[in-house]
Amino acid sequence: MAKLKSPGELEALRSSILKKRDPGKPCITVCNGTGCQAYGSKSIVAAFQDEVQKQNLGARVDVKAIGCPGFCERGTLVVIKPKDIFYQRVRVKDVPEILSETIGKGNVINRLLYTDRTTNAKVTKEGEVPFYKRQMRLIIGNNGLIDPTSIDDYLAIGGYTALAKALKMTPEQIIDEVKKSGLRGRGGAGFPAGSKWETTRKAHGEPKYVICNADEGDPGAFMDRSLVEGNPHRVLEGMIIGAYAIGSHEGYIYIRNEYPMAVRHMRIAMEQAEACGLLGENILGSGFSFNIKIKRGGGAFVCGESTALMASLEGRVGEPRAKYIHTSEQGLWGKPSNLNNVETWANVPLIINKGADWYAKIGTKGSKGTKIFALVGNISNTGLVEVPMGTKLREIVFGIGGGIPKGRKFKAVQTGGPSGGMIPESLLDLPVDFDELTRAGSMMGSGGMIVMDDKTCMVDMARYYTTFLEGESCGKCIPCREGLRQMKYILDGITGGRGKEGDIELLEEISAALFDASLCALGSTAPNPVMSTIRHFRNEYEAHIKEKKCPAGVCTFEAVKVK
Amino acid sequence: MVKLTINGREIKAAEGTTILYAARENNIYIPTLCSNEAVAPYGACRLCLVEIKTARGRERLVTSCIYMAEEGLNVQTDTEKIRKIRKMLLELLLARCPDSEVVQDLAKKAGLDKTRFVEQTGNNKCILCANCARTCEEVVGVAAISLAKRGVEREMTTPFSEDFSEACIGCGSCSYSCPTGAISMEDNKGKRVIKWPHNTMEFKLRKCSVCGQYWAPEKQIEYIAQISGTPISDYDACPDCRQ
């Protein structure tokens, strides 16, 4: 594969790929993301490939393993293109029937179709599935169209057009566009990406670094995993555009080691991009060079914090540092560095292709674009949900999410992972918006959205998150290390029937110190689960402490005398 | 030079001075535990937190050991908020090191004589300020000890938590730099014994060829000779007896 030396050559390659493809030819796409692999998708892919070969059907149908499109509740997902016939809960034993009935005779297999719960009618097309239909899948939607290990697939859907377009713009124009779009970081803090790029570009010091944070550590969050596993080229494209705009020639992608498929797929994507001249020296003949290295995390949630991540990249222990001097000025090895989350980078090609004005029409005044959420917990439709900012939580939980299963009642939804807070029923009409969620005592976070039903003990949830954070604290500063230690003792006590009068107030006191005095955001946001549950579910705490009762029926107490 | 205000007093500080040093130069007290002039600021104990308002009006809480003095900065070192935070930090620290006189002393100054929290047992006096490890790495250059593990498991230890550290030269800089006396050092009868929280090491002391006094560990002298490229015979006599 000769390196492409101009945008023209890129388009020629794209045309030649498209010419060889027949859009009318049936293609069996099987989700082979991590979630569906747990359902046995690998053997389904193999079975399809084997059967197609055995029955000599290669000329009639293609088989493609794709990344996670998001409806994880219904895995293994199989979509037959081009008719978009949507089969769910597919098992290996269904393979021969799908081939003989659907591919062979054009018949739809009813028992594999999705049933719309409100109308009780069967849905045939993927686009009609309510879970997908109610979303705006600008980013995750492409996962259903490509084999993530095929750069040809990515080129066939228009991949790298944004890069070609960007290379014809000036770095300042690109930064302007990103600023105008209103793109805010998707990693949790929501900092304006364009401003960060501009500060890094203007900072003094060479070389400049561009970093992708793929350390996704929030329990229950898997948006970034699905993006890197399912569409690594998109993330790459965003990074290359960013590097060009910032004036950086060296980049790092920091992927948590617990995501081996993501590491593997990103490596393949990088090799392919380099072979095509889309990454590395003299990209598309523009004279701009940019090289990326993948570094894997060692198993620490705290390394998702940008300064700890950079320490880890430098080979030091993953501990945060005080951010009085921004990493845009002094970051990796003391040089100007721009760190962004996977989803932030994935938004960039869209902004360049469609323009900032188009992008800024989506979302709210303060939060533009879409956000991908990992909707998990006590919810009917577990999976990845992409909606425009401003969508109400109620729509996500009850509309797209299908509400609470097993006839139970909604109790709370947790956004923002361990740094976020619990949102009760009374606040379900809150829109997903960076500032609105923060005002309500939670935060957007990276996108984890955990739904809890009435059989969940909120004190136990607070204890869970505190325990998690105690274990993940780097241990450097006193408020976080010792504060979380003591908070855990108190919460263990309350859920164990040893709660005392004054425990709630003590938790609040320690929380105040963590909030004000912690060195990094792990510590300063650690009180959120505790404080938000005290705020919205104080009665549960009091029941545990005063009556030694757990209203949700979860906590088993040691034998205590009840008044 | 930059002009800033600390507790209402206008002071001048050289560029590149931290708020902490600027305050100390002007006899303004800010408590610290992990700060040490010999090593880079660490920002771990958080006791030196101060409230600042920049010239542009941005208000925040920062550790004065790291934040540089800047023109027009307004610093408050002893507000109600700061006192509350310090009290809580010391109350938490008291629970970690109930036997440390240094912590008890600081706590008393903050108005605290006991802690409401669960006390750690057998922890002795290590407050994890990392002065020892930082000095060993940045000043001595051998990095014989370090802080290992994460969060509440964090501890000062040797490589692989073995009983000894091969790289240790017995110089005792860690003991000098420890603010709470968690590392002790004693020279007796030709031997130096350094006691760390989890292990003890012994070092043979070198005897002065002139006065016969034991003056430094053999290992330390070997190290100094090696890094300075001088012959070991240069160190036969102790510093007092050398010509």
Main beta sheet strand tally, sense and closure of chain B: 5 strands, mixed
The structural domain count of chain A equals 4
Shape of chain B: globular
Radius of gyration of chain A: 25 Å
Description:
The complex is a heterodimer of chains A (563) and B (243). Chain A has helices at residues 7-19, 34-38, 41-54, 95-105, 130-133, 151-156, 161-168, 171-181, 193-202, 223-230, 232-246, 260-276, 306-313, 342-354, 356-360, 393-400, 434-439, 458-472, 478-495, 503-517, 521-525, 527-547, and strands at 27-31, 62-66, 78-81, 85-87, 114-115, 122-123, 209-214, 250-255, 291-296, 337-341, 370-377, 383-388, 410-415, 422-424, 448-453. By secondary structure, chain A is of the alpha/beta class. Chain A folds into 4 domains: 23-135, 3-Layer(aba) Sandwich (Glutaredoxin), CATH 3.40.30.10; 159-360, Rossmann fold (3-Layer(aba) Sandwich), CATH 3.40.50.11540; 370-453, Ubiquitin-like (UB roll) (Roll); 458-547, de novo design (two linked rop proteins), CATH 1.20.1440. In chain A, strands 12-11-15-13-14 form a 5-stranded mixed β-sheet. In chain A, a hairpin with a 6-residue loop joins strand 5 (114-115) and strand 6. The longest helix of chain A is centred in the last third of the chain and has 21 residues, at 527-547. The radius of gyration of chain A is 25 Å and the shape is globular. In chain B, the strands form 3 sheets. In chain B, strands 2-1-5-3-4 form a 5-stranded mixed β-sheet, covered by helices on one side. The longest helix of chain B has 17 residues, at 80-96. Chain B starts with a strand and ends in a 15-residue tail after the last helix. The interface between A and B is medium-sized, with 31 and 33 residues.
